[in-house]
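I have been asked to look over a protein record a colleague put together. Alongside the sequence sits a line of tokens, each denoting a local backbone shape. Please read both lines and tell me whether the tokens look consistent with the sequence. Take the sequence as given and treat only the tokens as open to question. I have pasted the whole thing underneath without changing anything:
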Amino acid sequence: MSSALRARNRTGLIKLSSLLVAALLAATLLSVGAPARADNMRESEYWLDSLGVTEAHKTTKGEGVKVAVIDTGIDTTHPDLKGAVVGGADMSGSGGEKGNKPIGVMSEHGTLVATLLAGRGNNKGEIKRIKSENERLKAAWEKAKKHAEEEDEDIPEEPEYEKVPKLKSGKDGVLGVAPAADLLSVSLWMGEGNPSKIPVETQIPRAVKWAVDSGAKVINMSLGSTSPAWPESWDDAFKYAEDHDVVIVAAAGNRSGGMSQVGAPATIPGVLTVAGVDTSGKASQDSSTEGISIGVAAPAEQLVGGLPDDGYARWSGTSGAAPLVAGVAALIRSQYPEMKAPAVINRILKTAKDTGAPGVDNLYGYGIIDAQAAVTATVPAVSENPLGTISEWIRVHRRNTEKTTDTPAPGVSMEKSDLKQVAAPKPILPDDSAPALQPVLIVGGGVLLLLVLIAGSTQTLVRRRREKAAAQLGSASLSSLQVPDQSDGRDLFDEIPEEEK
């Protein structure tokens, strides 16, 4: 390997170790105000019809398929996830043993992702209705009883009350794309402040291997970095998943998060990378990015999702687009259990609705995902992944020879789109007197990026958490960031500078 390439790779790894983030590249929570309610979540899920998910559910709901969510941990007590999470583990050294403790600055992120992927909804509305009717009948009977006693009349028989059902899946709350799939929660600590000091670039390959060994047939990764390169230590883990017939889905990232190109792990060959579109099906200005590694696109704006402590939020980002696609992969693997991962990915690509420039492009990939077609259409079988393989990439690019020449990092588009880029302010230099988690920008190899996720207390819509959020505002330095006015179409991460030129 040439000295120039070695130097560039070392620089890339330094950047990656300091720039790897979770929802920073992909998630933005919106609409601070009245708490989002379970009874209006389902009607907000416009993608269930527009992507053909409702029709696909007539064929399969993802039964028998394990999907690993490598994220910030899932709150398994959320009513929409009752019975959905069947296992898990923590790779951070600071989370719950089974990955069921939301951790990190944006601990809500994993639960948001999980509900979009495999939320089962809940029957709280039915429970409330039955309880209310029973209380009405009881009150009416007690009134009639009192009157009869006062008038020395026969006391009427107490009415039979309808049995109140137990909490289960139902018509309220969030319905995921694959509501019958089984989830594995693999928790990571994103950003800085991990008490165990285990860097996230070490956690990720461990997470991938654990997911594979635990039977996952699909892995969702709504996380990434601003660098298209990845540590060489990741090679074996992603090759391990490839060798074990696992589909990996990753978020492409957001311009509003300071990204103009797709970053790792979404640049790794063979990974199905998901870009974001708005409610009209156009490439999202803020909640997406571009790159030649993009496979398909899915809704990334005006999303909804579940939050820890029985809450809900409206949010945006390719962090939300990715689990919609991972859910479709689970539907396919349920319907065609013998189908290999390359054919599953090919089926998703070939049935996508071509959008933008004719053919494959660096904004939509093959197009917007179509769940119904992906599950039911006739698609010729393939044996090779159309998105390439990490095995071949390793053979070509990890050769230890001085003859190797510099090549562009995978997934970096050499094309220019007409999509207007999001402007970013000038970098803010760190203050030596600032506390360790001060939300300033860290300089590393000429690249500036916020290392920690903005505290969810100023962003989320969650029932019974306003008091908790107020306390966080007073105690956490991260919470000093104020939520800007959303009316101008910009979001929280517009304030993060892009790489200096």
